[in-house]
Amino acid sequence: MEVLAVAFSLALIFLTLLFIWRRSSNGGANLPPGSFGWPVLGESIEFLFGKPEKFVGDRMKKYSEEIFKTKILGEKTAVICGPNGHKFLFSNEQKLFTIFRPHPMQYLFRSYQNKSAAPPPQAPLADETKAIRQPGFFKPEALMRYLGAMDSITQRQLQIHCTDKTVVEVHPVAKTITLSLACQFFLGINNPERIARLVKYFDEVTVGMHSIMLNLPGTIFYRANKAAAAIRKELITLIKEKKQGMATGAPMQDILSHMIVVTDPSGKSMPEAEIADKIMGLLTAGYSTVATTITFLMKYVGLNPDVYEKVRAEQMEIAALKKAGELLEWEDMAKMKYSWNVICETMRLVPPLQGTFREVLTDFNYAGYTIPKGWKVYWTVTTTNMNPEYFKDPEKFNPSRYDEGEAPPPYTYVPFGGGPRMCPGKEYARLAMLAFIHNVVKDYKWEVIDPNEKVEGDMMPEPQKGLPIRLYHL
User: Fold this and answer.
1) Comparing C-alpha atoms, which of 165, 169, 170 is closest to residue 473?
2) Residue 9 domain-assigned?
3) What CA–CA distances, in Å, run from 404 to 182, 341, 374, 393, 410?
4) Residue 437 lies in a domain
5) How far is CA 241 from CA 137, 160, 236, 389, in A?
6) 8 A C-beta contact, residue 236 and residue 273
7) Total domain count for the chain?
8) Residue 399 near residue 338, CB atoms below 8 Å
9) Rounded to the nearest 5°, which phi and psi values hold at 98?
10) Rounded to 5 degrees, what angle do the CA atoms 301, 177, 107 make?
11) Family per UniProt (predicted)?
12) What is the pTM for the complete model shown?
């Protein structure tokens, strides 16, 4: 009896505290509808392990198609939905919002900072892309010089992984190809053995970026932290090698070389630890999303023979005008219109990145509700991609929907974001994916072995078995 009474008392105390917490968390403001979930954890479990797109879709139906509140990854968050939400967010960057990295990302990519010291008020975290926006590494004239290397690396990797093979797992191959491209572009290295060592580490980091921060053996975050340390060690070694090479007059045509020589207004160079962390962030961004899109591109093209034939016809027309050994040129990319439509349709059905976060700089009102300063805003492409109001037969893979006259309404298809925060690597990603599709359809036809293979992952989707395909050499 006494045990039962104690248990009842503890339950009553817990429920009372939960009620007080829920009331105090509202703060009297006219907050959006929704729920903060459980104390401490909030709704993070449902968000991470119930698929973010389902998490958002279910709550749009339950609370509002425009906005709802939640608590995920330790933050009170407003999820702004639909094309109006996209437009509002893109139009108010650095006015109402600033960039925010979830705490696991801060920990993994900010090892050079003192984690025990709180950042000064309203001081946004440094942005990895700031170091590369100004020199123009992603501008067409810079990418133009890199396109030939992108083409040759893709050719070589396809030969390594597909020649004399009848069955190939697409996802591991796509990851190796995209990491090879990223290492050449960002680091100026083309060492297959070195790159192969890094692939498994980047996989762990990618999964750990959006996870519950529990740094205990066996947890997702623990594995990500160990992997980040291994990548950081390799990058520090590379930075020292790069400095030695630059001292002897080696060319500086990659982003790492720029980061080594760049200085702040006082003339101070960036510390090696900071360079390593920023480069790791850039490599992760340039690796995982492109690999994901290439993987599902192979799936949908393999499942749609008519699409494959159109893509191959377009690419063979380009190849026919080239001499033996001649690489892709800038003018060729403009001729790949249908192939780009195929890539766009792939990203609509399987967004390579589910969403990103912003921090609220000042109280603002949206859709009749108040969003307090300090809250986070979660932005996701999935609130429009599968909406039949914007995309006819949204479940159907139909690359022709992007032809002139059939383009989706503004702010309904935004795989690279928009406004000042549009992904700076959009053009890089476009070229990498087009170079891949050009080379793969020239030499191969394929059949998807398991069309119903389960898709895993939370923020970064991936096929459970790696998408095995049966290759036919042409």
Assistant:
1) 165
2) no
3) 33, 11, 42, 18, 14
4) yes
5) 22, 27, 9, 55
6) yes
7) 1
8) yes
9) -140, 165
10) 110
11) Belongs to the cytochrome P450 family.
12) 0.86
Amino acid, single-letter form, for residue 408? P
- At 368, which amino acid appears? G
Residue 103 sits at the vertex; the CA angle it makes with 416 and 82, to the nearest 5 degrees, is: 35
- Nearest in space to 275 (alpha carbons), one of 240, 245, 230: 240
Residues in the chain: 474
What's the gap between Cα 130 and its chain centre?
17
Residue with tokens 């050449």: 184
Structural domain including 49 reads 30-473
- For 235, residues 6+ apart whose C-beta sits below 8 A from its C-beta are 275, 276, 279, 280
Query: C-alpha distances in angstroms, 206 versus 273, 374, 382?
Result: 20, 26, 20
Q: 33-55 burial string, b = 16+ CB within 10 Å, else e?
A: ebebbeeeebbbebbbeebbbeb
Q: CB–CB of 33/63 below 8 Å?
A: yes
**Tens of pLDDT along the chain (474 residues)?**
444 444 444 444 454 444 444 444 445 569 999 999 998 889 988 888 877 788 888 999 999 999 999 999 889 999 999 999 999 998 998 899 988 888 888 888 887 765 444 444 333 344 555 555 555 667 777 788 889 999 999 999 999 999 989 999 999 999 999 999 988 888 888 777 777 778 889 889 988 888 888 889 999 999 999 999 999 999 999 999 999 988 888 777 788 888 888 887 888 888 999 999 988 988 888 788 899 999 999 999 999 999 999 999 999 999 999 998 899 999 999 999 999 999 999 999 998 877 889 999 999 999 999 999 999 999 888 889 889 999 999 999 999 998 866 778 888 988 877 766 566 678 889 999 999 999 999 999 999 999 999 988 767 788 999 999 999 998
- Does 183 show up as a binding residue in the annotation? no
* Closest-CA residue to 71 (of 115, 26, 108): 26
User: Within 10 A of 99 (CB to CB), how many other CB atoms are there?
Assistant: 18
We report the CATH number of the domain holding residue 396 as: 1.10.630.10
End-to-end CA distance of the chain: 78
Neighbours of 442 (CB within 10 A): 15
| Spatial separation of the C-alpha atoms in residues 344 and 351, rounded to whole Å | 10
Contact (CB, 8 A) for 122 and 374 = no
Say if 77 falls within a structural domain. yes
Is the distance from CB of 57 to CB of 65 less than 8 angstroms?
A: no
Alpha-carbon span 66 to 80, nearest angstrom:
6
* Tokens encoding 256: 């790492």
The answer to whether residues 102 and 210 touch, using CB atoms and an 8 Å cutoff, is: yes
In a domain, 237, yes or no: yes
Residues near 364 by Cβ (< 8 Å), separated by ≥ 6?
A: 92, 96, 370, 371
Tokens of 68: 């709802």
